[in-house]
Amino acid sequence: MSNEVVAFQGERGAFSEEAAYKLLGRDIQVLPCETFEAAFQSVAKRKASLCLVPIENTLAGSIYENYDLLLQNDLHIVKEVNLRIVHNLIAFPSTTLRNLRRVYSHPVALAQCSRFFSRHPKFQKIPFYDTAGSVKMLADERPADSAAIASRIAAGVYGARILQRHLEDHHENFTRFLLLSKKPHISPRANKVSIVFSTANAPGALFKCLSVFALRDIDLTKMESRPLRGRPWEYFFYLDFVGNVNKPPCQKALEHLQEVTTFLRVLGCYESAKR
């Protein structure tokens, strides 16, 4: 993956950038994008060779926008990575815990540090569009009484310092990221498959779909539903399961599933991330 251009949503120093380095190493080039859609489009338009997007967090749940974008864009999941989310209090030299009054960050990050704010009631929580973006803002404006909550690499990117580490309420705070490519790639170690399908709105339809996996003792690891636009009360179902599309049990299950669905697409076959 050396010298690959990897797009992600957010400013430099975002948790997505940290996840990209964990998965691919430091030799990659990174391309920050304003929105998730822009990150997807950067690969579709060949501005980047890959993009890395969060798909779920163990505390906040699924990122529904990215499920929808997986369907709207012809990209393939080629890898995944789990990142432990460590929230850090970041400031510049003129700011100390004693003179600190305002703390900026993304609303989700602020909510995940509620115990920290309970211990410091004088600190005002100020929602910002991005965790790393809040550090960038401090780097530009240098307010003496302000800090940000962001990743450790954000401090390095903007030349700031970490006043306090591990602000998060729960240490079991992980985000799962998907690496997407314009071309499919199935590694020899691939052991996980992601698909999306829809089915007729009829009694037992979903049961029939899921039974193709149960009949073959295939382990389902996640299921998510999203509205099928233009058809009220009908849904796309996203499914992750253990397997490899080149192995007979998985091939037979997908062939059987094709018979009982109205739409089926394999999003990727890849090596599951270490837990």
Q: How many DSSP helices?
A: 9
How is the CATH topology of the largest domain named? D-Maltodextrin-Binding Protein, domain 2
State the low-pLDDT regions, or none.
none
Let me know the number of strands: 15
Order of helices and strands: EHEHEEHEEEHHEHEHEEEHEEHE
Q: Please compute the radius of gyration using only Cα atoms.
A: 21 Å
Question: What is the CATH first-level class name of the largest domain?
Answer: Alpha Beta
Q: Could you tell me how far the N terminus lies from the C terminus, measured between alpha carbons in angstroms?
A: 22 Å
Q: What structural class is derived from the secondary structure elements? A: alpha/beta
> How many independent structural domains?
3
